[in-house]
Structures are given as C-alpha cells and as structure tokens.
Amino acid sequence: MEDKALKVIDKRMSAVEGEATDSGEPNAVILKAMDKNYSPELIEKMMDLQERYEKGLSQKAYVQAMASFKKNPPEILKTKHVEYVNSKNKTVEWDHAQLGEIAEAINKGLSEWDLYSRWDMEQPDKATVKTTCIITHADGHSEQISMSGPPDTSGNKDELKAVASTNTILQRLTLLALTGLAAKGTDIEHPSPKDVEDDFISEEQLKELVKEKEAVGMTDKLFLRSLKVETLSVLPANKFKFAMGILKARKGQ
Length: 253
Hints:
The protein has 253 residues and is α+β, with helices and mostly antiparallel strands. The protein contains eight helices and five strands. Mean pLDDT is 80; it is low at 8-24 and 192-197.
C-alpha cells in the first residue's frame, strides 16, 4: 500500500477567502478574519503577506511602465549655446540641454504611463549641495538617484545663486540618469580648464600656494580635500584667498 502525504487544509482560511471573493475590498480577507476573531498573530501574518503582495504588484507596475516609456522616449536636444570671450581674447563656447525643456519632455512622456518625477534638495553643509531625483508610479512604487556637488561660485555668484546653480545642474543630471536618457549633441557640455584658464588661479598664485603648503607641512591629499578640488591647477580664482587662509591657519597651529 502506497504512503499518502498528509495534507492539512485550514478550512477557516478557505471560508474567509471564499466569503471575501466578491467583496471587492483589497483587504477583505483580513477584515473577514478580524470578524471571525482570528488570533492577532494570524491576522498580523496575513497583513504582512498582503503588504508584500501589494508591494510586488506596485514594483511590477513601475517596471512595466518604465519599459513602455523607453520604447518611445522623448528626444532631448542641446538647445542652449553658451559663448563668450575670455580675458585672453579667446572664444569659449559649448552647448547644453536646458533643465526646463528636459523636464517638460520627460514628464510628458512619463505621465502617459502613470509616472511622475520630482526632486528633493538638501545642503548638509555649506560646501555641499545634494539633489535627489525621484520617479514614482501611480501604484506607489518609487525609485531614486542622488548626486552631490559644491556650490557653483563661478562668475562671482553670491551664496544663494551658487547653490541654485549647482542644484539646477544636478536636477538635470539626475533626471537624465534615472530615466536612462541623454541629450543629443556633442558630449562636451562645459569648457575645458584651458578654455577658461582665466577663471582659475594663475601660475604665480599656484606657485605661491605650493610654496606655502610645503612650508607648513600640509599634505596634498588633505589640502585638496579641504578645497574640494582634484588638483590645485583647477582651483577657482575666487577661492585663492580661502586657500591661503587654510594654510595660514595651519601655520598658526
């Protein structure tokens, strides 16, 4: 005689599910369980299962919506042309896509699939601006990406405008990154250090900083980290006094 596996069926659960089938309530099973005085532990497990089930559906809806969005993505063009003549009488120019046009095109495409984007911005300290782009589906699932950068002090901007400028750049970059899109056109969206050398410290200032740094015994790594630059040659001219101040403070210690 063959062994038969013992199968236990919880008729209480079957009865509850059967009664809730036609109710149309997402949590009908749980409501019925509560009506029948099921134990709190069982109801809690049912609620956890319901939550995971709904979360999975929401995530699946997001993925499907993004896949549909990417089948016919909006075209992003670099329509903003920047051009000026620097102090060395050299023309500096580049093209970039404008945030307003990017956001309008992308959000229009996202909305067709019940998606929308937004940004959060915070400034953990005076030297850092952090921008987070969040895309959310109507069913509730969201995904996000964050980028940080120093306030854009170029062009003698005040503190508020410097923060706003960096935030605008980060909004553009995070939205494109999260949607997997890129603006069409040349990849160079900003001039090289050679093109804007008048915006950086001069050779004389560089030599002065190096000499002072060596005199106070400050390491390159610590100094560059304090200035938030990869190399002293690209230190903005308007930060020269700040850099000297760091070295003088070090000397005083």
